[in-house]
Amino acid sequence: MLTIDEIANASNAKVLNGNADVKVKSYCIDSREFNKEDFFIPILGEKVDGHDYILDVVKKGAIGFFISKNYIKKDEIIKNSININKNICIIEVQDTTQALYDIAIYNRKKNIDIPIVAVTGSVGKTSTREMIASVLSEKYNLLVTRKNFNSIVGLPLMILELDNQDIGVLEAGIDHIGEMDILSNILKPDVCVITKIGVAHIGIFGSQEKIFEEKVKIANNIKGIKALIINQDDKFLSKLKDEKYNIIRYSLNDVEDKVVNENSLEFKTKIYDEMCNITINQIGEHNIQNALSAIKVAEVFKMEPEKIISGIKKYKNFNGRMQIKKIKNNISIIDDTYNASIDSIKSGLVTINELKAKRKIIVLGDMFELGDFSKEIHLKTGELFKEIKCDILYTFGNEAKNIALTAKKYIEEVRCFDDMEDLQNDIVKNMKDGDIIYFKASNGMKLSKIVNNILEM
Predict the structure, then answer these.
(1) What CATH number should be reported for the domain whose range is 323-455?
(2) Is 194 helix (H, G, I), strand (E, B) or coil?
(3) Which distant-in-sequence residues (6+ apart) come within 8 Å of 321 by Cβ?
(4) Do domains 2-100 and 323-455 have the same CATH topology?
(5) How far, in Å, CA of 264 to CA of 305, rounded?
(6) Would you say 317 and 127 are in contact if contact means Cβ atoms under 8 Å apart?
(7) Which of 53, 251, 260, 446 sits 20 to 30 Å CA-CA off 9?
(8) In 197-355, where does DSSP find H-type helix?
(9) Which spans in 143-268 are helix H?
(10) What is the pTM of this model?
(11) Are strands 265-271 and 256-260 parallel, antiparallel or unpaired?
């Protein structure tokens, strides 16, 4: 834990009020998620200025807060805050976002002996992070990214929780060029895992090559163990060569005797050069890749094979990620609505193709943040059905109609909808005994509402 004095010194700031020896246990940037005695960091966003919520958190029991030197209502906020709590800790900074970075960098240096595993990539960051954490937690006390705290402001908050853990397993996500430089400098990771170079955010970055260049920057400040663990099946990552780090590669070619069950996957692969039987109590081929990366991380930390196998078996996914739910008439609903890219859709479709069912119904919605590439990528997604058995394809949204355009070459029954209620009614009307119904789209399409409505019927 950092003291108010340490926070002020790290951010080159001035303590305006409060006891400099007070220790801060936790930090918050969103007043809606505030807990008593949090230290509040008001971030200036595109639409909202966190300074407008300072008095709200002071009333709720904040231990202190940053305030920008140039905030127009600074004096008024300070006066009113002290009137509410005369002991409130107030630190004046030039820029609150930079101050967040500064104190995160300071806390990382303070806890530099705790190794960090940093996970990034275009697809599968969160599930890979959770698989690695499930394995490492069999032996070690971990700090693991909470919720979606993987961003340019979320990840520094996680670093501020680094204290007395054995290992940190932290996810790094970027939305713009230059952000990975900042995150790498804050993280100073010992092990970096890069899952895949896909087309997520390609509308912002402009090309997969540029996405690749940005993602690899996660290792710019690699230290200690200096292990870079990569998916050798990815055409961009496979070209990486050992330079300032030790490259460890994993591939689906390392897998033998794969068996896809209704709710699990079984296969064989090597751990420390010995073939082992692995069970994942989830479906989805991407989970095999996640397990392979987790094995490589566990080997770096010299974990026993039986604990690695146990950790993989205990892995649980989040809501909206390839979750199978049974309803009446032996109908299986597969909820994969958390997010979508062409790579994650391909993985999902391959999994559905391997499952047994009387009929397979696929529901796909728009993919976001593809910019000028959106039509092209949605059309390519439709081409995936050349290798996939599908009895009915539903598309939802204007962009997803392009999936239908190419998928019609391979599927007899394709139905396009723009209205969610109409889509739901048609799915429900056409459901039959023994169906598998798979839902996938970017989170903003809200397909999870249909899933939940069907489950409640």
Answers:
(1) 3.90.190.20
(2) strand
(3) 126, 127, 335, 336, 338
(4) no
(5) 20
(6) yes
(7) 53
(8) 202-205, 208-216, 285-300, 305-314, 342-354
(9) 154-159, 179-187, 202-205, 208-216
(10) 0.92
(11) antiparallel
| Domain ranges, ordered by start, for the chain | 2-100, 111-314, 323-455
DSSP-derived letter for residue 369 is S
**Edge-to-edge, what's the strand order for the sheet holding 227-231?**
142-144, 167-171, 116-120, 191-194, 227-231, 246-250
Quote the CA–CA distance of 361 and 100 in Å, as a whole number: 47
Rg of the Cα atoms in the chain: 24
Can you give the pLDDT of all 457 residues of the chain as single tens digits?
Answer: 999 999 999 999 999 999 999 999 999 999 999 999 999 999 998 889 999 999 999 999 999 999 999 999 999 999 999 999 999 999 999 999 999 999 999 999 999 999 999 999 988 899 999 999 999 999 999 999 998 899 999 999 999 999 999 999 999 999 899 999 999 999 999 999 999 998 888 888 999 999 999 999 999 999 999 999 999 999 999 999 887 889 999 999 999 999 988 889 999 999 999 999 999 999 888 899 999 999 999 999 999 999 999 999 999 877 778 888 999 889 999 999 988 999 999 999 999 999 999 999 999 999 998 999 999 999 999 999 999 999 999 999 999 999 999 999 999 999 999 999 999 999 999 999 999 999 999 999 999 999 999 999 8
Residues in the chain, overall count: 457
The whole-angstrom separation of Cα 295 and Cα 132 is 8
CA–CA separation, 332 vs 73, rounded Å?
A: 56
What is the three-class DSSP state of 244?
coil
**Terminal alpha carbon distance of the chain:** 49
Backbone angles phi, psi at 423, to 5 degrees: -60, -50
Single-letter residue type at 430: N
Superfamily of structural domain 2-100: MurE/MurF, N-terminal domain (3.40.1390.10)
Residue 249 has which token pair? 């590669």
Topology at the third CATH level for domain 111-314: UDP-N-acetylmuramoyl-L-alanine:D-glutamate ligase (3.40.1190)
